[in-house]
Write a structure and sequence with these properties.
The complex is a heterodimer. By secondary structure, chain A is an all-alpha fold. Chain A has two domains: about 1-50; about 55-90. Chain A is built from four helices and no strands. The radius of gyration of chain A is 20 Å and the shape is flat. In chain A, about 35% of the residues are buried. Chain B has one domain (about 40-200). Helix content of chain B is about 80%, strand content about 0%. Chain B has ten helices and no strands. In chain B, helix 7 packs parallel to helix 9 (about 160-170). The two termini of chain B are about 35 Å apart. Classes of the chains: A mainly alpha, B mainly alpha. The interface between A and B is large, with 69 and 94 residues.
Chain lengths: ~90, ~200
């Protein structure tokens, strides 16, 4: 957890200090996309090599759909509550 | 972006499933993933730090702006508590998955490494569903409340679901969506790894 926070904070500080040109930002976006692609590919590898997950994929899928619907509902209701309380106006 | 990510996942699963990569390579894959995750967060940090408009907007709106991402986060965590009861899951596992808030790349990677592939897969699928559902339901949600699409998008309201949100609401809500999405994006790694620590 510490390494995650440190790398994020270091990134923000460097992003603020360095005078980044648009071309640099595009490069960062590309690097970001490449790293995400590799991470997801490796995650897929770990899932594929773990046969018990493949066997339970249908159960996981139903649970995942429930998670999406219930967390969205919770967030929408909470935001409607602060709108009604006129916090955001 | 979504097409690329889903195809990367499918390729990975197929390669893993058909034993194209030897079992002994799994340890190497795990340690390379850990380094890549650190690189990813570093790049996310640079991107947020270099975005001056976001920092200026934050200053102008003051502390009140925090109410939006905090309410979205509280609502999702409350949903996590409900799901823990509904599915008979451990409260910390349920909260760790719920606090992904649509940030499927990061939350699933953190949970795969900290807990295991089963919870990582659940985080990946549920958060990707959250993004897809936001794109599909935003026109309807915008009629209920102008900030509802932002709430639904969670962390994704700063990039992937932003065009849909602006189209269904207004440019002003678009700015709020970016700020809220940035704050939630920064909260996700903290919350997910915090809850992951309590699992087991």
């Amino acid at each position: 957890m510490i390494d995650i926070i440190l790398s994020l904070v270091c990134g923000i500080i460097i992003g603020r200090i360095l005078p980044l040109k648009e071309s640099h930002k595009t490069l960062i976006q590309k690097g970001y996309t490449a790293v995400i692609f590799l991470l997801i590919l490796f995650m897929g590898l770990q899932i594929g090599m773990n046969k018990s997950i493949i066997e339970n994929l249908s159960t996981i899928g139903v649970h995942a759909a429930l998670f999406a619907v219930v967390t969205i509902s919770g967030s929408v209701l909470a935001v409607m509550a602060i709108e009604r309380a006129r916090v955001m106006s | 972006m979504i097409a690329m990510i889903v195809s990367a996942l499918v390729i990975g699963v197929l390669v893993g499933f058909f034993n194209i990569v030897p079992e002994t390579a799994l340890g190497g894959v795990t340690s390379v993933s850990q380094l890549l995750l650190i690189a990813l967060l570093f790049l996310v940090g640079i991107d947020v730090g270099a975005n001056k408009e976001v920092l200026i907007d934050l200053k102008r709106m003051g502390v009140r702006i925090l109410a939006l991402p905090l309410a979205i986060t509280a609502g999702s965590l409350l949903g996590g508590v409900v799901l823990s009861v509904l599915l008979g899951m451990s409260i910390y596992e349920s909260l760790a998955v719920a606090s992904g808030m649509g940030y499927y790349t990061l939350s699933s990677i953190i949970l795969t490494q900290a807990v295991g592939t089963a919870l990582g897969t659940l985080a990946f699928l549920s958060n990707i569903f959250r993004e897809i559902l936001t794109v599909v339901t935003s026109p309807g949600l915008a009629r209920i409340s102008r900030l509802a699409p932002v709430a639904s998008g969670g962390a994704t309201s700063m990039d992937t679901t932003l065009p849909v949100i602006i189209q269904c609401t207004s440019k002003t809500v678009g700015v709020l969506a970016v700020i809220s999405g940035v704050i939630i994006t920064l909260l996700v790694p903290f919350l997910v790894s915090l809850f992951a620590r309590f699992i087991r």
